[in-house]
Amino acid sequence: MATFESLPLFPLGLVLYPNEQLPLHIFEERYKDLTAYCLEHDVPFGVVRVDDGRLANVGTTARIERVVNRYEDGRLDIIVRGEERFALNAVYERKSYMTADVEVFDIAPVPLESNLRERVITQHMKLLELAGRTVRPDLYVDVEDLSFILAQNAGLSDEQKQEVLEIQDEPDRIRYLIQHFESLIPRVEQKEDFRRKIRSNGHFKDFPPEQV
Hints:
Pfam family, one: LON_substr_bdg
Number of strands: 7
GO molecular function, one term: peptidase activity
CATH class of the largest domain: Mainly Beta
Keywords: Hydrolase, Protease
Mean pLDDT: 90
Radius of gyration: 20 Å
CATH topology of the largest domain: Archaeosine Trna-guanine Transglycosylase, Chain: A, domain 4
Structural class: alpha+beta
Distance between the termini: 47 Å
GO biological process, one term: proteolysis
InterPro entries: Lon_prtase_N, Lon_prtase_N_sf, PUA-like_sf
CATH superfamily of the largest domain: LON domain-like
Shape: globular
Number of domains: 2
Low-confidence stretches: 201-212
Largest sheet: 5 strands, mixed, barrel
CATH architecture of the largest domain: Roll
Strand order of the largest sheet: 1-3-5-6-7
């Protein structure tokens, strides 16, 4: 594994995946300092999920792609993109912002069986349709680490998103998502069926409110 020493660290209440874009509004002084350092030296920073004050063990490096707005008081609107996953080795508070020594994951690609790929794509498209979202077939074409693309819009909790991030191999991540979809889609279908029956003057007594 490659190592980063003193990687600037940006704890957030979310999970960032490799190649995922994330807009950020920078207003705290410590993160103004972090952003200024990364822009000046053209280096990434680390996004790590924080939950109840505890940092996750695995995060993603992020690089600033664009500064959208600069405000007179020093605030910034930026867009970053996730790059590589890493494991935390040591965290320091020597500057206004945290830094960390990390090991970047260097994992040889594992081929994804076509049947797994087709199955998870079909499930994901079904979920998007049920949610009333636009289905874009090009989303699934010629992409590395399909799992990270799908997991961005898969109805996962933050804890589940973190679990996906920490799974090493692509086939194992895809299997995780398949199992998740197998559980989630029937529940979404049940709720949608309930809504349709209400819209067509169905009988409320047959569908208790807690099922909505």
